[in-house]
Every structure is written in structure tokens, then in C-alpha cells.
Design a protein that fits this description.
Strand content of chain A: under 5%
Order of helices and strands of chain A: HHHHHEHHHHH
Number of helices of chain C: 28
Largest sheet of chain C: 7 strands, mixed
Largest sheet of chain A: none
Strand content of chain C: 15-25%
Helix content of chain A: 40-55%
Distance between the termini of chain C: 54 Å
Radius of gyration of chain C: 28 Å
Largest interface: B-C, 47 and 50 residues
Oligomer: heterotrimer
Chains: A mainly alpha (about 200), B mainly alpha (about 450), C alpha/beta (about 950)
Strand order of the largest sheet of chain C: 6-5-17-16-15-7-8
Structural class of chain A: mainly alpha
Number of strands of chain A: 1
Distance between the termini of chain A: 58 Å
Radius of gyration of chain A: 22 Å
Structural class of chain C: alpha/beta
């Protein structure tokens, strides 16, 4: 009977939507996020875990600038003139250095254009890099998914929350609130602090 | 029954026949209309696309008229959307018999009008692709809309109104589409079948149906007053001289009913002509509606007087300057046109002949529609043209794009309505039947009961 | 437009970049290969240099982000402008990033220009000169530049000498030759003195537009504010004599409208009545023995009692200052006129106090116009074989039509221009050798004795260019066949020469000098004695029939060299509030007689020629005059994009014959009479202000001096707030606010352009501006009161006043407009849906909407401030009180673990204001300057009766009735 047909169709549609959301949600786990193919297969894990290097040794601008910054090619060569100079990846690096070319790294983390995210105050407030960037020290190639969208909102709506750190605004705000409550940090809650 | 109509009242069979006849395959004239409307609509859509592409600059808006024709037309259509519910709900509760043959068309008009109006907030928004920011839903930004903003109230008011009147409309349709289902074949049969929700006309179903209908009528009634009050607050809540007035809610509601009835007449009269429905939409109906139009017109006139008086009596420099400018300067023609259409023209309805003559009624109604569109225009554009700050005073000039879009919206409305009258019974079979004497068996003697 | 993305900017700047998009918008980020010590990505570095948009030589600090200069600010240490910058200085950036800038040398090939290599181009010049020298015609080489007073000038002298070229010409269209000649005549000193406005009690100006362009406008404006601004009951007086109500005239306490050319007579009449009233040194009587005040009164149309009144006020001043200049004073009688003014100063003992010889102006080194004219004659006679025109020298545009430069240049075999963007002269040039912009160059400039400013490159050249000095050196080497290190010009580069000259001056303190932006010392005023002799500033010789033409230098374009900046075209002319097109100011009477309506295209005809301009009907202009601003022209990239091509050139010099003031050799701008004829066509002006009449709304308020003094004694003003049902708003941290002193605002528009530069405000073009779609966050309004022919003008800077009870906030459906914790009225662009409700509900209409997607023609986009969002299509924007500066200021304070101090944070408008009319600060700190001002009895909130409680308060203008 036509009525049941209608109801059935409706039901099917809803089911389909839920399935789509579920599927798309699986792609949102940073661990599962596809790391991009970088020009040089740079292993964060080795540099941090094996050699215990500090993030800011290479990303040296984080403490004084809006940007964390990338190490200049010459800085990489500082160690790699000797260290592991024979490895193919390092030879790629040496190639860039000798040609005087910058390395075209593929960008991983990016907040939207309309968002002003300065690293400096966060470093000043002793926020660990991992808080936002995830366990980079365990990743070979850094990977992550950032940004808010209608899809994210719908996911949120059906309770499929992205695994931390989602780098969504609500998440930022909650952290600011928590920090202010916990240790009287003066993390701004004004919209225009980041959007201007 | 005391409501026996003048000429030989139609029998149940006539009703069925006549109503089903309205759904007969349309003639050339109908298609001619449809194609014209389709063309206009296409232009409208094109213009909108263009506007989204290049930005709001395509529309003639500027500082100080950040709002102009879109909001004007938005309010206009919301206003139109009032007569329907008024007729079907309030008049139903008051058991005004004469509503029966017109309420179906009026309800359809309501829904289509609100659907048209609903487009304009989107057309108007600078970034309509973010319109969903206005909906309160749990999101990852942990943000909510600003419930202090009249625009958010609008979202609720209009969506409520649309949903209630749609449900009301569909429920009202059930017995009729059931009748059509049995009389039709093919895809129509399947369509009516779905809409009739398995109606068999059993006693049980009739009982529930009545109860439900009454319930919805009761639900819809307050909306008639609330919706346009809320819309009026878009202006009343603002600071602009000429907007900031407690008068606006009743003023808008009355205006809405006024224009709504005018639109009903504009739609009903040709229908009655072309479908030969004189038997159902009789002069009595016209007379009743005309009287309502007349009354609302007089009330509106009163509000106009109040508006002017308060502006003057307030002694507020800005209000006075704004008023004086409106009445005398650049946009004065629009103002006086409005006064003529809304206050003077309807006065002919004091005259019985005019009230019952389709020609006169049609003419007056069209004037009223024009007048009411300009009422909204006069509230928005001239008030903004001369508000607080002389540095930015300026005149709004419509652009091709926004004019085309507004015209397109009319096309969209009529497209829906013309589609409707060929698809659905535009006269309620059931209720009309109620109003005519029950059929008696052959040879039965009069007054046997 | 990606912002705040250093790596992208580097990519854009030409470092190798991989295209995104191929892998679904993959974005590449490029680290530096070798770190640059001076630059930390994301942190601004500042470079001190000197502004060269006009000969005033103000100190500039250039804000460099990621190797790009994004903002200019005045150098607070520099004695000329002490931190302020004028509208032209602010807009200099747009000439640095001029979209039409040449890239590398261009060789004329018929009508077209062909790119050439530097070797070939310089080689060509050198070979030509070599040939000439071989033929003993070294004198056929002519070098023309704008005013240079430092190392470059010295180098050019050496160059000319070494090559045996014709003595170089220093060409300045507004050279003030007459002022110099007058000094020679009266004080026997061939110099232009320094005018200490701040030391004066009464300033009496005969046409000198010192707020706009005269000598050193920023310096004079700042000093004038010190002298004239109302401070604790004290306020100086300013009387201005001019046929036209210029911005300067509009700032006068008493504007006296005289018949054009009668300034000298008036000066003498004033002196006469000073002598008569015994207010002046008796010995000056002989100078004015023949002067009859009554006759002067009827000639000038200024009542005799007014003259006596002026004399009285001026005579009692301790001390006074009389200045003369401007268009109306550059007739054939200019020297006599200015001599009369000098006598006036001498007579009241102003010389040595407010008029100081010693710190003489560099203008004294300008080649008199007569010599420039002689050069053009020589060209016409074919005596010049190589004509070298220095950077921005544009004789084809700035020389009077009478000289017919174009035709003369046609007789020169090789015309070389060093200008780096197309102008009228580069169209004639055979060879274009684009010189680096001054922001890309080494150099030094001394605007006056004792001040030596130092220029340094603030960034790498935007397009392929060569420093002018280097080009000269290389040409010279080519000519002389010498190697680097030998010959008369041994220096490899101009930089090397500059350092060699500075070595003895600063020794090892070179770095410090660079940081400070130069070196300066106090120069004592020399004692001079006036030679008292009668002067006769009879009426100037005027050619032709009809109305006297007043061509006055535009405060936005000067002589036209700054006109490449679209910011300047979009910043309204304060008096008319017109943007883009130039206009002919027609007196109301004449307009009525000829049936000319505003916006009618009028043909202005002089004996020399005719130009067509839209009419601006002026109620204030003297009935016997018409006025046209000098310097309006469009860059190629303006036409079509922002404005349609004008029917004829807009520059009134096309109407001048080139008459000369014999005594000084200066060009007589006041030299022709013109006739007006409506062409029937229309070209409506884009005028931003709907009306100058406030319609009793008291937006700009004033108080008369006596009342102001009384109030000042009574003290602090109670901020009267309307009663509210809501609890007062709490501010946990700071509360930002502003105070704008209407009494100090001169209407110079510098703040408008500074704001535009700081906040990435787009340029919309003439049509959109005319239709109320301009995007300025800040505007300077002119409100006129009193009788239309002689109004009192109030300049009201209006920006978002950040209401405490803001009408825009409750109506926004999505909290895009909201109240911040620090008392700002925030606007969140990315939250805005564009309902524009706030725009309607803002009673000040300071909210701006992005009607379109606006473009920054390359490379102008490089100038965009990386700390400020570029707003998207369809969102509202408005003044943020430079939130990015507030954030930066708080960040700095936190680094030092202290709260923000008063004066730490300056908004862009405040920073550049020559008169310091704008004050920003924390309202919760009672000690802050802004709190003090907001409690001043003169403070009021615009439209505060609406209950908006503005955080930006204005201070009433103090009006002196006949001081």
C-alpha cells in the first residue's frame, strides 16, 4: 500500500544518511588521516624519540612569532653535513642545499584564513605542542585534519565526535576556558582576539 | 437550510462533477500563462545567480539603504500569507458558512505566499551560503544564534507558520483527494492515493477528522496574529526614525489581512469565471469578502493617521524631519500612491454594486496589492534615506537584477498556484456539500422528516 | 587572498613554488634556504628613512613584514614631522607597489616601448655623451631633477663638472622663488627662513596654504596646532587672507576673502595701520608712506575697518607671524607681495623669533623657473642633445602650456627619463631607466639647515630598477672610460659615495644614524636687519579676459607626482568631499549667470588653451575668480578600473602661458583670466557628503572661546548617561576608548589614508563611491555653519564610536557584531551572514558592506597588512580601533610582565595625525590622557541623546568670534 511505501522510503533515506555520516567520520581520526607525500621523507619520530630533539630546535620561531616556522635548509644541513650523509633522503636534502632551493614541504596544519593563531602566546603559556598538533613524536610523517565545516557540525549532531585534537573553534574555546579556570591563565575569549 | 443559495442549489452530484471538471486537462490559455510565468521565473533565477556570483552590489542597495526591495517584497508576501489561515481557521471556528467554497484556494495561496516570502531572506543575505548560522543547532563552534535579534524571531515565526498551515492544508484535503482518487486513474490515482492516507470515509475516520481539523484550526488561529507582529518587529525594534514605533504590530497585521483578502479576490475571481464556479462562489461570498476588505482598509487608514500624528506629536526632530521629507520629497509619489490605493480606492466598496461586481472588485484588489507593496517600500526605503546622519543621506535606485528577482518571485507564486488548481480540488467538495440540502430519494414527499 | 602566511608571500615573491590544486588544493610552504638575520617571519622590523613625496623631507619609519614594506609611519625622532605624516606620505606605498611600474629599462621604438638591458641602455646614453664631448658639445647634455639637497646633489654637481655638461637644473613646480627673492630684497639674505608657528600668538597668513602644501605642511600643521589649539584656556589666533576658502582658510578664526592678487596691498595696508596705531617700529613708516588704506580697501574688497582690526590684533601679538604664499600670491607681483609680508614681520619684531633665518629651507636651492624656461628654449633651438630627467620629473605635465615642452622635447635627439612609472614625460622619452623608489634607495636629504635625514632601502626593489645615483655613476664611467676606484667619480655605487660623505660626519655611529633616521642639531637664528624701502605690489599682470584663474596645488597630489596612488584619489577633497575627478570651482553667482549646474562639464578657456572639467558650484569663492586644483591625473591602471578617462587633461597648467615674476624668476600661477562655457555634457562629481548642513542635529559642536575658558575653569565634565534599566557593563581588564578634538582637526585626510593602509580597506572607484559604497572606516566630514558665503567650518572625523549600548549588536542574528570584554564593538567577519541589519540600525552609518569582491591589482596586494583579514564578499566591516595593534601591544606588555601603559598602543589614525587631534587609550585608567580628555568640559558624544553611550567622544571646536 502506498502509505507504507512512503514511510519505507523515508526510513531508507534516513538510514543512508546515517551510514554516510558514519563512514565519513571514520576518515576524521587524525591517526587515520592520510599523511601527505612530502618531498623528503622526514621522520619526526626518529628526530624526537631517538635523538630527543626539542620541537623548537627546528620550529624555532614558535616562541617569538605568530608562526612556528620551518628550519632553513642550512639548519638541516648543520647536522646532516655529517650525520647520515649517505642516506638517499639526506642526499635529496643536500641537493636542495647545493641548488640553493627551498624544500617544497606540503602543508599539514592550517587554520582558516580568517583565524589568527599566534604560536607565541601559547608557547609563553607553556602549552605543549602536542596539545594541538597531536602526538607528532609518534608519527613518521606528521598528519592531521583541521578546520570546521557543515559536515563536521552534522557529525557532531549525530554524536560522531572527531578524535582530539579537532582544531575546531569549540575545542579552542573550551581549552581557553579550562586553562583560565584551572590556573588563572588570561587566555582571551573574545571572538576578535582570533578573528579580525 | 437557511443558507439556501439564490439559484437552484447544486446537488452533490453537481459538486463532484463541477469540482472534478476543474481538474480536466487545461486549454491553450492556461499553457500560454504558464509559459509566460515560466519565462519570468527563469529570468528571476538567472538574476539571482548573477547576484550570488558578483555580490550584493548587483542589487541597488547602498549606504544608507542596506535594505530595500527584497525586504519590501518579503514583508509583502508574508502579509499575503495571512488571509488563508484567517479564512480557514478563524472563520471556521466562528462557523462563517460563506468561507467553505473559498478557503481551499485561500489556504493554498497562504502556503505558496509563505514559500515565496521564505526565499527573500536568502536572496537578501550577503552570504546566503552561511544562512544556516541562523539555525540553533549543536555545532562544533559551540555557538548559538542571537535570540535577541528580530531576524532570529522571524526564522521561528515563519517556519512555524509554514509548517502549521501546510499540515492544516493537507489534513483539510484528505476527504477530497480520496474522492478524486476514486474518480481518477493512472499517476493521479497514485498521487491522490498517497495523500488520502487510506481514507475510506468511515464514521470513525470522519470523527477523528473533525476533531483533528478543529484542533489545527485552534492551533493556527494565534499564528495569524503572531507571525506578522514578529515581522513588524524587524522594524519596530530598530532605531530608524519611521520604524521605531509600538504601532507596528497591529498595523502590520491589519495590513496583512487587507492585502491577503485582496490577493484572494484576485485569484478567486478569474477561477470562478473560467471554471464556471458561480454556483459555489456566489455574489454573497464576494460581498462578504468585500466588506472585510473595506473594514480593514478603514482600520489601516486609521493607523496611517496615527503614524503621522505620533511622528508629529512626539516633537522628536528626527521623526519629524523624516516624516516631512517622506511626504514632500523624492519618494513622495510612492507615499501618495500608497494612500490612494489603500485608503481611497477601497471606499467604492461602500457601494453594493461594486461589492458584488467581479470587475470592480478585481480592479480594487489589484490597486490594493500595489498599494500594500508600496506601503512596505515606504516604510523601508524613504525612512532610511533620511535617518539620523545627514552625511550619508542618499537615494536608492533599483537595479536590473533586484527588479528582475522581485518580478521572478511573483512568477514563482503564480506558477505554484496555477499548478495547484489543476492538480487539487480548488473548491472543498466536502464542505460545499455540507452547505447544500441533503439529496432526497426519488418520489419521497417533501418534509417527510 | 591568503593572509598571514609568510611562506605563501615568499612564494609569491618569486621563490620557487609548486602549483597547488593538482592534489586537491595541496599548499606548499617554503622555508628560507639561508635564514635572514634581520627578518623573523611574523615579526615586523622597522627601517627609518626620509619621505620624498615632496621637498618637505619628513622622517619616515617603514614597517617591514617578511621582507615587504606594509605601512609607513612618521619618525617620532625626526625634527620636521615628529611622528606625523601627511596624506601623501601615507600613500607613498602605492607608488612603491605601482601596478604600472616599469620593469627594467625601456627603449622607445616608435609608439611602443621595448625592454632593454641595463648595459645597452646605459651604454647608449654614455656613447651619446661621449660623441658629444668628442665634438666639444658636452654642454649639450642637460640634467634635470627635483630638489635634492644631500649627497645626490653633490654627486650630480661632480657629475656635471666631470662630464662638462650644462649646469644641472633643480626643477620644482612650486619653487617659492619669490619668497627667496623677497628675503634677498628685504633682508639681503638669499634664503627661505624657517617659520616657527608654535612660537607665534597670532598667525596672519596671506594665502599661504600651510595646512596643505606650503613649504613643510606637516611641520607647520603640528606647530600651528600647538599655537592655535585650545589648551587650558590658552588659544592662539589665526587670520587668513585668500580669495578662495582653502582647507587652510577653513581653519582660520577669521577668513578674509580678498580680490585675487591684492594680498600685497593688504599687507602694506595692515603695516600702514600698524604704524598709524603706533604698534610698529616708526622707521617702517617710510615704506608705507604712499599707502592709502581706503584705496586698498576698495581695490581688495576688504573693508578698511577690517584691515585696522587685523592690524590691531596682529600688532598686539607677542609675537605675531605673517606668512605669504599659495596660488593667489604667485602672480607677477609675487616678490613685492612677499616683501611686504616680510616688512610686516620685521615691523612687529617677529624676525628672529617666529621668522628665523639660519635654519634655512632647502627650497632655497631650487632653480628659478625662468632658467627652466631658458632650458626649454635651448631645447627648442636644438642646443640640447641629451636631456636627462631625474626620478618623477614630469615637465610635460607640470610646465605651463605656454612653454610647449612636448614640442621642444621633440627637438632633442635623446630624452632619458628616470621615472619608474608611466607619466606624461615618459611618453616623450626615448629611453626610460626606471630608478628605484625612495623606499628602495640609499640617500640623504636635508630639508633645512641643521637637519640631515638619511634614506636607506627598506626592501628589495619591487620591479627591476637601478638607483638613480648608480645609473649616473655607470654612465659617467662609460663616458670617461674609467674603472671603478679611479677618475673623478671613483665610487662603485651611490651607496659607497653616500657612506664616504657620512664617514667624517658620524664616524662609527653610522648604525645609530641609520636607526635614528639621520642627524640633526639646533641651528641658531641669524640676526638680519630689514632694509626699509617702499615696495609696490601693484595688481598682477593678467592675460586674457573673464575670471581670474586660481590654480592651487592639490593637497592630495602636490604637483601631480603623487597622483599614481589610488588611495589619494579615493580620499575626498575635504572642502568639496569630492573623490577622483578634478573640478573647476565656479562662484555661485557666475554659475547662476551661465546656467552651470554642479557636475556640468565646463570648458575653461584661456589664451593658452582650454580644458574641460566638471563644475563644482562654490558659494564661498570670490566672484571674480575660478579655482582648479593642480596635479590631478590618472595612472593607466586607474582608467577603466576605477574611473572613466576624462575628456581632456585635468591639470590647469595647460591654461598658463608661463609668465614670470621678474624680480624672482618664479612662475606666475596667477597669470591668466579664463572664460567658462558649459559644453552641454555632464560628468557628475562623486561627492561623498550629501549635505554640509547639519540640520540642527549638532553632530559637530562648537563653543565660543569665552565659554570654553569659563568651563575650563569650572573643570571636569560629568559624563551624563541617560538612565538605564540594565546594570552597568563590567570590564574585567582594559576598556579602550578614544577622544577626538574637533578644535585641532584641520581636515588634512591623513588619518583616512593611514586607516586605509593599515586595515586593508579596498578602493572602490568613482561610480561606487558616488553611490554610497565607499569603504573608508574613517571619514573627515565638513560641516558648515553661518551664512553660506562665509561659513564657519567644523571638521568632524567620524568612525565607529564603539557605543557601549550599540544599536548594531542586538539586531545581529549571529553575534557577528558583539561587545568585547574590553569595550570594543567587535565585528567578526567570518561569522557575518550579511543581513545588513546592523548597517541600517547604526545611526552613524559607519558600517561598511562588501558589495563586491574587491581587487588589489598586482603588486598592490603585497602591501596588504598580514595582521588584518581581507574581508570577503558579502560581509560587514568597520573600524576595529586597530584591534591588531591592541593585541600586539598587550602581547608586548605581557612579554615584559606588565600592564599596558598609556601611549603603548596607538591607532593608525592617531599615529599619523599632524595635530594630534586623536587620542586612544584605556578609559579605566584615570591617569590616561584619553580619560582626561573625555572628562574635559568640551567632550560630547555624537548623537549621544540616542543613548548609545559612545566610547569615542569628540571635543567641541572653540570658535573665536573676531578673536
Amino acid at each position: 500500500m502506498s502509505v507504507r511505501a512512503g514511510v519505507g522510503a523515508l526510513g531508507l533515506a534516513l538510514l543512508a544518511i546515517l551510514i554516510v555520516l558514519a563512514l565519513s567520520s571514520s576518515r576524521r581520526q587524525p591517526v587515520a588521516a592520510q599523511p601527505p607525500v612530502q618531498p623528503i621523507d622526514f621522520p619526526h619520530s626518529i628526530h624526537v624519540q631517538t635523538y630527543g630533539m626539542d620541537c623548537q630546535y627546528c620550529h624555532a620561531d614558535a616562541r617569538r612569532s605568530e608562526y612556528a616556522g620551518l628550519p632553513s635548509v642550512s639548519r638541516c644541513m648543520g647536522c646532516h653535513k655529517i650525520t647520515a650523509a649517505d642516506r638517499p633522503e639526506i642526499q635529496k636534502l643536500a641537493g636542495y642545499a647545493s641548488r640553493g632551493e627551498p624544500i617544497p614541504w606540503v602543508r599539514v596544519f592550517q587554520v582558516p584564513d580568517f583565524t589568527y593563531f599566534p604560536h607565541k602566546p601559547h608557547v609563553r603559556a607553556q602549552i605543549r605542542c602536542q596539545t594541538c598538533h597531536g602526538p607528532v613524536e609518534t608519527m613518521r610523517t606528521a598528519a592531521g585534519v583541521t578546520g570546521q565545516s557543515l559536515v563536521n557540525d552534522l557529525l557532531h549532531l549525530v554524536g560522531v565526535r572527531a578524535a582530539p585534537p579537532p582544531l575546531t573553534m569549540g575545542w579552542c574555546i573550551n581549552c581557553h576556558r579550562a586553562e583560565n579556570a584551572a590556573r588563572g591563565a588570561r587566555a582571551p575569549l573574545d571572538c576578535v582576539a582570533c578573528h579580525h | 437550510m437557511s443558507t439556501a443559495v439564490e439559484r437552484r442549489s447544486p446537488t452533490f452530484a453537481d459538486v463532484n462533477r463541477d469540482v472534478i471538471r476543474t481538474l480536466a486537462p487545461p486549454g491553450q490559455l492556461y499553457y500560454a500563462w504558464m509559459s509566460l510565468i515560466g519565462l519570468l521565473l527563469a529570468c528571476g533565477i538567472l538574476a539571482w545567480t548573477f547576484q550570488i556570483w558578483v555580490g550584493m552590489g548587483a542589487a541597488g542597495k547602498r549606504t544608507p539603504q542596506m535594505w530595500a526591495m527584497y525586504i519590501t517584497t518579503f514583508v509583502f508576501w508574508i502579509g499575503i500569507g495571512h488571509a488563508g489561515t484567517l479564512i480557514s481557521a478563524i472563520l471556521y471556528l466562528f462557523r462563517a458558512r460563506w468561507r467553505t467554497s473559498i478557503y481551499r484556494a485561500a489556504e493554498a495561496m497562504t502556503i505558496f505566499a509563505v514559500m515565496t516570502a521564505g526565499l527573500f531572506p536568502l536572496i537578501h543575505a550577503g552570504r546566503m551560503w552561511y544562512a544556516y548560522f541562523l539555525l540553533p543547532y549543536v555545532n562544533q563552534r559551540d555557538l548559538w544564534p542571537n535570540f535577541r535579534s528580530p531576524l532570529v524571531w522571524d526564522v521561528f515565526a515563519i517556519s512555524t507558520y509554514l509548517s502549521i498551515s501546510t499540515v492544516f492544508f493537507i489534513v483539510g484535503l484528505i476527504p477530497d483527494v480520496a474522492a478524486l482518487r476514486d474518480a481518477s486513474t493512472g499517476w493521479r490515482r497514485r498521487l491522490y492515493g498517497m495523500l488520502s492516507l487510506g481514507w475510506e470515509g468511515s464514521y470513525e475516520q470522519w470523527r477523528h477528522y473533525r476533531r483533528a481539523y478543529g484542533l489545527f484550526a485552534a492551533l493556527a488561529t494565534p499564528l495569524v496574529l503572531s507571525v506578522h507582529s514578529v515581522v513588524s518587529w524587524d522594524f519596530a525594534m530598530a532605531l530608524v526614525p519611521g520604524w521605531h514605533s509600538t504601532l507596528f504590530a497591529p498595523f502590520f497585521v491589519d495590513g496583512a489581512i487587507f492585502s491577503g483578502f485582496a490577493m484572494v479576490l484576485v485569484l478567486i475571481l478569474p477561477m470562478r469565471r473560467f471554471f464556471g464556479l458561480d454556483a459555489y462562489i456566489t455574489d454573497r461570498h464576494l460581498d462578504a469578502m468585500a466588506k472585510l476588505v473595506l473594514v480593514t482598509s478603514l482600520v489601516l487608514t486609521y493607523f496611517y493617521v496615527c503614524e503621522i500624528f505620533t511622528a508629529w506629536y512626539s516633537g522628536d526632530h528626527f521623526e519629524r524631519a523624516s516624516l516631512f521629507w517622506k511626504v514632500t520629497a523624492s519618494y513622495a509619489w510612492a507615499l501618495w500612491l500608497m494612500y490612494f490605493c489603500n485608503c481611497v480606492a477601497p471606499l467604492v466598496l461602500f457601494w453594493k454594486r461594486a461589492r458584488t461586481s467581479p470587475g470592480w472588485l478585481f480592479g480594487v484588489s489589484v490597486l490594493i496589492l500595489i498599494g500594500m507593496w508600496f506601503e512596505r517600500f515606504n516604510i523601508i526605503v524613504p525612512s532610511l534615506a533620511r535617518d539620523f546622519y545627514p552625511y550619508t543621506w542618499g537615494l536608492y535606485v533599483p537595479s536590473v537584477a533586484d527588479t528582475t528577482i522581485v518580478v521572478g518571485s511573483f512568477a514563482w507564486f503564480f506558477l505554484l498556484f496555477l499548478g495547484f488548481i489543476k492538480l487539487m480540488p480548488s473548491v472543498s467538495v466536502v464542505e460545499v456539500k455540507e452547505t447544500i440540502p441533503a439529496p432526497v430519494k426519488e418520489g419521497a414527499h417533501a418534509g417527510h422528516h | 587572498m591568503k593572509r598571514r602566511d609568510f611562506f605563501r608571500i615568499v612564494a609569491a615573491s618569486g621563490a620557487a613554488t609548486a602549483a597547488g590544486g593538482c592534489q586537491g588544493g595541496v599548499e606548499h610552504i617554503l622555508p628560507l634556504v639561508v635564514p635572514n638575520e634581520q627578518i623573523v617571519p611574523g615579526v615586523a622590523s622597522w627601517f627609518a628613512t626620509v619621505c620624498r613625496e615632496c621637498p618637505a623631507g619628513c622622517g619616515v619609519l617603514a614597517r617591514n613584514r617578511e621582507g615587504r614594506v606594509v605601512k609607513l609611519e612618521g619618525n617620532p625622532d625626526h625634527p620636521v614631522n615628529t611622528g606625523a605624516l601627511c596624506v601623501r606620505g601615507q600613500a607613498a606605498l602605492q607608488r612603491l607597489y605601482h601596478p604600472d611600474r616599469f620593469s627594467g629599462p625601456q627603449r622607445r621604438d616608435g609608439a611602443a616601448l621595448q625592454p632593454a638591458t641595463w648595459e645597452d641602455a646605459l651604454g647608449l646614453v654614455a656613447s651619446r655623451i661621449r660623441e658629444l664631448r668628442a665634438g666639444g658639445r658636452g654642454g649639450a647634455v642637460a640634467l634635470v631633477t627635483h630638489l635634492e639637497s644631500g649627497s645626490l646633489a653633490a654627486l650630480m654637481d661632480r657629475w656635471v663638472q666631470a662630464l662638462g655638461a650644462r649646469p644641472r637644473v633643480t626643477y620644482e613646480p612650486f619653487g617659492h622663488e619669490a619668497l627667496r627673492a623677497a628675503s634677498r630684497q628685504v633682508f639681503g639674505r638669499d634664503a627661505i627662513p624657517y617659520y616657527a608657528f608654535d612660537q607665534a600668538e597670532v598667525v596672519l597668513s596671506f594665502g599661504a596654504d600651510f595646512v596643505e602644501t606650503w613649504l613643510s605642511n606637516v611641520n607647520h600643521a603640528r606647530d600651528f596646532a600647538r599655537m592655535h589649539g585650545f589648551r587650558g584656556g590658552r588659544a592662539g589666533t589665526f587670520i587668513h587672507v585668500e580669495p578662495r576658502q582653502s582647507i587652510t582658510a577653513a581653519n582660520a578664526d577669521e577668513w578674509i576673502r580678498n580680490a585675487p592678487g591684492t594680498e600685497g596691498l593688504l599687507a602694506l595696508a595692515v603695516l600702514r595701520s600698524l604704524v598709524d596705531q603706533g604698534l610698529a617700529d616708526r622707521r617702517f613708516a617710510e615704506a608705507v608712506a604712499g599707502v592709502d588704506v581706503a584705496r586698498v580697501a576698495e581695490q581688495s574688497g576688504v573693508p578698511a575697518e577690517t584691515i585696522r582690526h587685523i592690524a590691531e590684533v596682529f600688532g598686539h601679538a607677542r609675537p605675531g607671524l605673517a606668512v605669504g604664499g599659495g596660488a593667489a600670491v604667485t602672480g607677477t607681483n609675487a616678490t613685492a607681495t612677499l616683501a611686504a609680508v616680510h616688512l610686516l614681520n620685521a615691523a612687529v619684531g617677529a624676525v628672529g623669533r617666529t621668522v628665523r633665518f639660519g635654519p634655512d629651507s632647502a627650497y632655497g636651492q631650487v632653480t628659478p623657473f625662468a632658467d627652466v624656461a631658458r632650458l626649454v628654449e635651448a631645447m627648442r633651438r636644438g642646443e640640447i642633445a641629451v636631456l636627462l630627467l631625474g626620478p618623477d620629473v614630469d615637465p610635460a605635465f607640470t610646465l605651463p602650456a605656454g612653454l610647449n615642452f612636448a614640442e621642444a622635447a621633440g627637438r632633442v635627439p635623446l630624452v632619458v627619463s628616470f621615472t619608474n612609472a608611466p607619466n606624461e614625460t615618459t611618453r616623450l622619452a626615448h629611453l626610460i631607466l626606471p630608478a628605484t623608489h625612495w623606499l628602495e634607495s640609499w640617500g640623504d636629504y636635508s630639508p633645512r639647515e641643521g637637519v640631515l635625514g638619511l634614506l636607506q632601502p627598506t626592501m628589495a626593489p619591487v620591479r627591476d630598477a637601478l638607483p638613480f645615483g648608480d645609473a649616473l655613476l655607470r654612465v659617467a664611467r662609460g663616458v670617461l672610460g674609467t674603472e671603478e676606484g679611479q677618475g673623478p667619480l671613483p665610487w662603485p655605487t651611490f651607496e659607497a659615495y653616500l657612506r664616504s660623505r657620512w664617514e667624517p660626519l658620524v664616524g662609527d655611529r653610522w648604525g645609530a644614524a641609520l636607526q635614528q633616521g639621520g642627524v640633526w642639531r639646533e641651528t641658531p637664528a641669524a640676526t638680519v636687519r630689514a632694509r626699509v624701502a617702499p615696495v609696490d605690489p601693484g595688481p598682477p599682470a593678467l592675460q586674457g579676459e573673464g575670471l581670474t584663474l586660481l590654480p592651487y596645488p592639490s593637497f592630495r597630489f602636490y604637483d601631480g607626482r603623487s597622483a599614481g596612488a589610488s588611495w589619494l584619489h579615493e580620499a575626498p577633497d575635504t572642502m568639496t568631499q569630492a573623490v577622483w575627478d578634478a573640478f573647476v570651482e565656479v562662484p555661485a553667482e557666475t554659475a547662476a549667470r551661465l546656467g552651470i549646474a554642479p557636475g556640468d562639464l565646463v570648458r575653461v578657456t584661456s589664451p593658452q588653451g582650454a580644458i574641460e572639467l566638471p563644475a563644482y558650484v562654490s558659494p564661498t569663492l570670490h566672484p571674480s575668480a575660478v579655482a582648479i586644483p593642480v596635479g590631478h591625473r590618472y595612472a593607466p591602471y586607474h582608467v577603466g578600473r576605477y574611473v572613466s578617462a576624462p575628456p581632456t587633461p585635468m591639470n590647469p597648467v595647460a591654461l598658463l602661458g608661463g609668465a614670470v615674476d621678474e624680480a624672482s624668476g618664479g612662475l606666475a600661477y596667477l597669470a591668466v583670466k579664463v572664460t567658462l562655457a558649459p559644453t552641454g555634457a555632464r560628468r557628475p562629481l562623486a561627492i561623498l557628503q550629501a549635505t554640509h548642513d547639519q540640520d540642527d542635529r549638532e553632530l559637530a559642536q562648537h563653543v565660543d572661546l569665552a565659554a570654553a575658558r569659563e568651563q575650563a575653569l569650572r573643570g571636569a565634565r560629568e559624563p551624563h548617561a541617560l538612565p538605564s534599566m540594565y546594570p552597568p557593563q563590567q570590564y574585567p581588564g582594559y576598556r579602550w576608548g578614544m577622544a577626538i578634538d574637533v578644535d585641532l582637526c584641520l581636515g588634512c585626510q591623513a588619518c583616512v589614508v593611514a586607516c586605509q593602509a593599515e586595515n586593508n580597506v579596498p578602493v572602490v572607484g568613482k561610480a561606487q563611491a558616488a553611490y554610497g559604497r565607499q569603504l573608508h572606516w574613517l571619514r573627515v566630514e565638513r560641516w558648515a555653519e553661518g551664512e553660506p558665503t562665509h561659513p564657519t567650518n567644523l571638521f568632524l572625523p567620524m568612525l565607529c564610536v564603539h557605543c557601549e549600548v550599540a544599536p548594531c549588536e542586538p539586531v545581529c542574528p549571529v553575534f557577528a557584531a558583539y561587545r568585547t570584554e574590553e569595550g570594543l564593538n567587535g565585528q567578526v567577519y567570518n561569522r557575518c551572514v550579511g543581513t545588513r541589519y546592523c548597517g541600517n540600525n547604526c545611526p552613524y552609518h559607519v558600517r561598511r558592506f562588501n558589495w563586491y569582491t574587491y581587487e588589489w591589482p598586482e603588486p598592490l596586494s603585497v602591501q596588504l597588512n598580514p595582521d588584518v583579514a581581507v574581508r570577503q564578499l558579502g560581509v560587514m566591516e568597520k573600524c576595529t580601533m586597530c584591534i591588531q595593534r591592541i593585541i600586539a601591544g598587550k602581547d608586548r606588555a605581557r612579554d615584559e610582565g606588565r600592564p599596558v601603559r598609556d601611549g603603548d598602543i596607538m591607532t593608525a589614525c592617531q599615529q599619523t595625525c599632524p595635530t594630534q587631534a586623536i587620542t586612544f587609550g584605556n578609559l579605566k585608567d584615570d591617569g590616561s590622557e584619553v580619560s582626561r580628555l573625555q572628562h574635559s568640559p568640551r567632550a560630547y558624544g555624537v548623537l549621544e541623546e540616542l543613548g548609545t553611550r559612545p566610547s569615542v567622544l569628540h571635543l567641541r571646536k572653540v570658535v573665536r568670534q573676531h578673536a
